[in-house]
Write a structure and sequence with these properties.
14 helices, single chain
């Protein structure tokens, strides 16, 4: 669609394809590197930095606490979406490179905390910047392409870690490669957003009107989703390393996870266009629960790959559906409700690794509890959908 067809309020908006690529790359860096790069790097850090699984849980928790803090800031003082993306990506690059500059565990905690906060800014910023542009241009279905960026980033980080494990780079060199990659894309998107930020649609009548009961219920379910998925999302590569010693084999678990996430959002948008976001979210959580509980029944490469497909293939579909539902329920308050979702999700993620630590690194009971939380969330979403007349 040409800029001449756009209303004055959009004044030469970026083309839909530009919005998709900007959002996709931003989420790839924010989530693939800022949030989840530590997961495939955990086995490497166990090997060359002497990191224990419990310490790994604390580093993961620090990142999730940072994510929560970033989301809370976005709720209380919503930043301009383009600025949130620009500064968030730049900060992720700096904090990722910082992981290679020290071996101090406490500094690692601080860096992972800050990277988590920056990632929340990027997610909220991309959701508030790209989604309205796509809706205005009649390309709302392309949101699946934007959210596929998370899977692309996870797959990329997993492949880099795979190469690092096979070639014996070590974790420090891997952090440098990931940080440098984040820096390149942060610089590229900074210039893109500097040109487009002034033309992005602004929220109308945002204020701070109260959110509805349905909005808060959905946020609670989104928090259960965060708790339910984070245990396999954090510990699958470490589980694979315990079963298989060859890094050329066990390191494939995380790239498979990311590839499933990248493909799933596009497939969901294509094959389930008439399914309501709430129901798609509920159905996705049932598949996710199967992936969470599978390693409890057996731990071998095939089960772990199956789990990676179930978890990776649903968590971004649920995220996409959750953001769409937040836009429906929130109206002019949609950016604020997305930030509330992000905070609930982060809180669930914090509880996940802490639950693992509570069971002294054991994953059986935490996984069972996570699967139960996902089932309860799906039941709640289904019942509330019927109560509101959602037949999608």
């Amino acid at each position: 669609m040409s800029s001449t067809a756009a209303p004055a309020a959009f004044s030469t908006p970026p083309r839909a394809v530009t919005a998709v690529w900007t959002g996709l790359i931003g989420l790839a860096v924010a989530m693939g590197i800022g949030r989840f790069a530590f997961t495939p790097l955990l086995p490497l850090m166990q090997q060359d930095a002497g990191l224990t699984l419990v310490q790994g849980g604390w580093l993961a928790t620090a990142n999730y606490v940072g994510y929560l803090v970033g989301a809370v800031i976005c709720i209380s003082a919503p930043p301009a979406p383009s600025r949130a993306i620009q500064w968030g990506l730049t900060s992720i690059a700096v904090f990722t490179l910082g992981m290679a500059a020290t071996n101090d565990f406490w500094l690692w905690l601080v860096l992972r905390f800050l990277a988590g906060a920056a990632s929340a800014f990027v997610l909220v910023g991309v959701s508030a910047w790209a989604m309205p542009i796509l809706m205005h241009l009649g390309k709302a279905a392309w949101s699946g392409r934007v959210f596929s960026g998370v899977g692309v980033g996870i797959c990329f980080a997993g492949l880099i870690s795979l190469v690092a494990g096979v070639t014996a780079w070590g974790s420090r060199a891997t952090w440098i490669v990931l940080g440098a990659t984040a820096a390149v894309f942060a610089f590229t998107l900074w210039r893109r957003l500097a040109n487009d930020g002034a033309h992005a649609p602004a929220a109308v009548g945002a204020g701070h009107t109260p959110l509805s009961a349905q909005a808060w219920l959905a946020a609670l379910c989104y928090g259960a989703f965060g708790f339910g998925y984070i245990i396999p999302a954090t510990f699958l590569p470490a589980l694979a390393r315990e079963v298989i010693t060859n890094p050329a084999v066990f390191s494939w678990v995380w790239p498979v996870f990311g590839a499933a996430a990248a493909i799933s959002t596009a497939l969901a948008a294509r094959f389930f266009p008439g399914r309501s976001p709430r129901r798609l979210w509920a159905y996705g959580q049932w598949v996710l629960a199967i992936g969470v509980i599978a390693p409890v029944l057996a731990v071998n490469l095939y089960v772990l790959l199956f789990s990676a497909l179930c978890v990776g293939g649903t968590f971004m579909v649920i995220t996409m559906a959750g953001v769409q539902e937040a836009r429906r329920l929130g109206g002019t308050q949609a950016p604020r409700l997305i930030a509330v979702y992000t905070a609930a999700f982060a809180l669930g993620q914090i509880i996940g690794p802490l639950t693992v630590n509570l069971f002294h690194g054991g994953l059986t009971w935490p996984s069972l509890i996570a699967a139960f939380a996902l089932a309860a969330s799906s039941f709640t979403l289904g019942l509330s959908a019927r109560a509101s007349g959602d037949a999608g």
